[in-house]
Automatic annotation (TrEMBL):
Keywords: Endoplasmic reticulum, Heme, Iron, Membrane, Metal-binding, Microsome, Monooxygenase, Oxidoreductase. It comes from Stomoxys calcitrans. The gene is 106090391. This is Cytochrome P450. Transmembrane segments: none annotated. Its main location: endoplasmic reticulum. Its cofactor is heme. It comes from the Eukaryota. Belongs to the cytochrome P450 family.
Amino acid sequence: MTYALYELATNPPIQEKVRGEILQIMAKHKRNLTYESLKDMKFLKAVIQETLRKNTIVGFMPRVCRCSCTVRTSCNSPLTIQQGTSVLIPIHGVLHNPDLYADPDTFLPERFLEGEEEANKIDRCSFMAFGIGPKVCIGEPFARLELSLALALLLSEFQFSVCDKTPSKLIFDPKKRFMSTVKNGVHLSVKRLRHKEE
């Protein structure tokens, strides 16, 4: 939630675009946020996906190699991993690999919109914010639904912007090794929106 609001505050045109989608779909559904109305919010879904990609929560994913295999290192030399070897997959490294995600340090939700050229190029196996395969996080669908609902409610009522305490770049606390935590927090300015019917 924090990372999504930060990204939207630092990218006002994207915030306006997603708010426009939210308000339009809410109007179509008589201002009710339902499971169906949230499913219609394609750009909100892309914003969440891009937030999870750019701001990786968990840095590594532990796995055990089920069979011996040879992979290429960053220097393009072969490396054989023996069966039974414990490995750590660097999730942040995968989600910021420019070979997989063009311009990886830029917040571009459009890369996840269905029908967009880049969305068609993304290897589904490269996105592992919740893990992947049979050990994927069991709470992923609920977390996505909860985040969609919370963001839709907040963005329909408030505008988020940077303030003098907002960091220009998020610096993560190196002491928090399991889950990424922003050093010194994230400060934003919040302004209530006035809707026409008020």
